[in-house]
């Protein structure tokens, strides 16, 4: 068998890399493994399952998704990775992504936003997969930022109880950990306040056809996921 020259080996390596990057643009789990192969490993089947379901949301096959896991299981990290990936994939397809992601406090919601805006989107690995994704310098606040070419926020966030003025989301509406801890979950006032804010402010931002994603550590049957997934409840979806 003839031995390949160094130039041929470099060309082959380049072609293989381009193939892998093309797969990352279309397959969320492959994107996860590319950006963080240590964390998103094959020995974490729960993360792979979540990635497959989030792929279904991205492909339009799932309109409502509930993800319930204990603290420190990686659910918010994979959600941030998905937000970055869908921003890149939709932009590549000529779409203008619009994601809303709300949490129990503005500080947490803004942390997630920074993780995506300043971390994932600025990483060298992300830029290899989506080299044409550029943040707008005109709209870059932590609670609402845009990609170049998008006049509306590409991503915006708030804490439960906060106002969301003038924005609508069409790519995904995410409620990520709306209840802080067991103490809040045992408070009827807090539980009802979260639910009332979800059904008024949060839902009012959804444009027609926008999928919903609920992520939470389950503390109570009366949290939003509990009410929405209880087959005997009045809010069952």
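Q: What amino acid sequence fits the structure above?
A:
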């Amino acid at each position: 068998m003839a031995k390949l020259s160094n130039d041929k080996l470099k060309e082959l390596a380049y072609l293989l890399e381009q193939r892998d990057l093309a797969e990352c643009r279309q397959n969320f789990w492959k994107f996860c493994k590319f950006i963080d192969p240590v964390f998103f490993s094959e020995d974490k089947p729960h993360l792979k399952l979540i990635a497959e379901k989030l792929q279904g949301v991205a492909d339009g096959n799932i309109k409502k998704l509930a993800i319930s896991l204990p603290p420190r299981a990686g659910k918010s990290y994979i959600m941030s990775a998905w937000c970055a990936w869908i921003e890149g994939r939709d932009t590549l397809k000529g779409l203008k992504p619009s994601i809303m992601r709300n949490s129990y406090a503005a500080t947490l919601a803004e942390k997630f936003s920074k993780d995506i805006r300043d971390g994932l989107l600025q990483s060298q690995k992300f830029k290899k997969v989506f080299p044409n994704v550029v943040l707008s310098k005109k709209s870059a606040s932590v609670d609402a930022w845009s990609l170049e070419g998008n006049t509306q926020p590409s991503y915006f966030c708030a804490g439960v109880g906060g106002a969301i003025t003038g924005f609508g989301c069409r790519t995904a509406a995410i409620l990520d950990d709306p209840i802080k801890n067991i103490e809040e979950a045992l408070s009827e006032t807090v539980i009802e306040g979260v639910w009332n804010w979800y059904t008024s402010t949060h839902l009012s931002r959804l444009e027609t056809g926008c999928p919903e994603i609920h992520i939470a550590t389950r503390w109570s049957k009366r949290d939003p996921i509990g009410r929405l997934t209880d087959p005997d409840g009045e809010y069952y979806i």
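Q: And what stands out in the fold?
A: The longest strand covers residues 135-141.
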